[in-house]
């Protein structure tokens, strides 16, 4: 199964959330402490209030000193006899209590003051307003009290409150300190709800102020008070005119006389005791939720959950507020929104860093991996990836990728694999680790075909390792890729990146342009490596291997220049040269007498060249060598797959009488079907299997079964890369036909081979 990124990229995901959470917490606290969300808080609460708006009890009636009343009397403040008249009328109408939200500070006309004092005495149920200490924008004014003559005939209540930037009063006090005595607020008195000094409560603005019964003072003075309006009810008298100025902002409604705020406060207390939790509890709750989201690995749902939490936060308090439980939500909202922002950013970053087909982090993600600096970088390159994908049914590339990653994960299930286009996989590992064994094992795993959509697919893979350096990850990735490529060309399973080869990279580019001239200048020559019959232990042939001794660089590895030439389809001239030399050498070494056979490497790519058969025929003819004395070892066989033209060419070569051998068997395309199709009389088991055979049982089995399979198909088998006597004996036991390797002789000059043949002609190699 394909490894999901969030499971694998645990290390990254675990270090970051702490930092994000810390910053979110600090910013949220600052936001909360400074009250930066106050405006929004007010708007949100007013909006919520409209969701559970309800009516006042109707037990408190407001008598408005409105514009009509002001017009009727003609001036403000009114002569106090009018207030006396109001008191008398309301008392007569049966009001339970009468509250004056009007100031009676200082003396006026004695007759006026007396009229009011007498009315207060007659009524015996009047509460007068005391203002202060009040604080508006930090200013503290002294207490203001009604005249002593009024005070002695009435109860006193506080009309003190704080209002905000909007001129809105969100909370009212229960009781304030007065002159030697604590004064309950109007709201507290009206609702008969005592409370502690300086303790305050939130006004429930979901109460509709328009549902409070009201009457203009003009009507009361005119004696037009409806009979039942105030009977048994509490009455509060106050100004509700722009002219007098005592106007406040009632959230969700607009400007109203302050008297309504007292009435609403009283109504609030009548319906219960409000509880205010402030912003901290919800803030910490949302912080905990945010932390959970940041750590959560269910990537897809995180944002949805954050959205849901925001929704709950916006609407949930309405439920609490309808039960008079008040909370401030903006700091919590801030935390959730910033958390959602972090998650969103993380998701976008990931999206750009994830391969859409495999779901694995891509190479851009690899290049920005911070911890990768101190680790070794390993690259696996599937060499025939493009061909495989081209032959796959639609939509099955992901299956293929999953299977590749499953194999790469063997022994390291938690490793993060990065995936690049064209069959590139990369990962980081401990730099001190010996990689050889692990990569050998991975290589072996890839020998078994991968099954995708009931197709068996042979993968050819190579690995490159960059141990670690101070260079950028982009450079290191390039180097690891280069090493993987070189490994493939050198017939190796894996290769360490060699810093010197950086220079070589540019050198390699110039190889091609120099090769043809080098052949003409005589810098290129042919070495011959003896091939031994394992039954007779005699040299029965040799493989011609191209050598280039550069005047400045010295000997250049065949894999280097042959690989470059093959890749750029410039192998023709070199092949013609080697064929010419090798056929001449074969004649020189014994011609058609004996059974000496000369092998020449032939790149599968050349099988597209129609003139090839003719040229070989001409050469054989020129030197007079029998075609059966020449074996063509097919290399770079991938190009051969499914190509009818190439198979035709092979058939023509067979017709000519030349022997065909499949070189490096086991590394590239080596399905049974392929083996049957190619008219090769011989296969050469790749040296990578032969080398590991002595130590490794599974390699031994592989070599043994390949020999048996080849024999059953009537093919002969050459084991190449035979370095030890042990291997040689094992191969003989397995009935392998021929051996070639350092134990049979290193590639040598024609002269050396000639001497060796003559001096050892009758002696066994081992
Ligand atoms: P190959 O055809 O598989 O040749 C065998 C390679 O293994 C040779 O490397 C040889 O030197 C090396 N070798 C032989 N015995 C041993 C051993 O016991 N141990 C080890 N470690 N190596 C051993 P060389 O000469 O570097 O050639 C590499 C490859 O280059 C050849 O692999 C062949 O694919 C290609 N090549 C060489 N000459 C030509 C040529 O003229 N034409 C073409 N098309 N390819 C050539
Ligand atoms: Mg060969
Ligand atoms: Mg070979």
CATH class of the largest domain: Alpha Beta
How much helical structure, as a percent, in the residues? 40-55%
Strand content: 15-25%
How many beta-strand segments? Answer: 32
Q: State the low-pLDDT regions, or none.
A: 1-15, 134-142
Our Rg estimate from Cα atoms comes to 49 Å
Class derived from helix and strand content: alpha/beta
The overall pLDDT average reads 86
Number of domains: 4
Rough shape? Answer: rod-shaped
**What spatial order of strands do you see in the largest sheet?**
24-25-27-28-29-30-31-32
Question: What's the story with the biggest beta sheet?
Answer: 8 strands, mixed, barrel
Which ligands does the model contain, each kind named once?
ligand C2E, magnesium ion
Would you kindly provide a brief summary of this structure?
With 766 residues, the chain is an alpha/beta fold. The chain contains 28 helices and 32 strands. The chain folds into four domains: 2-34 and 277-339; 52-276, no CATH class; 352-504, Reverse transcriptase/Diguanylate cyclase domain (Alpha-Beta Plaits); 508-765, EAL domain (TIM Barrel).
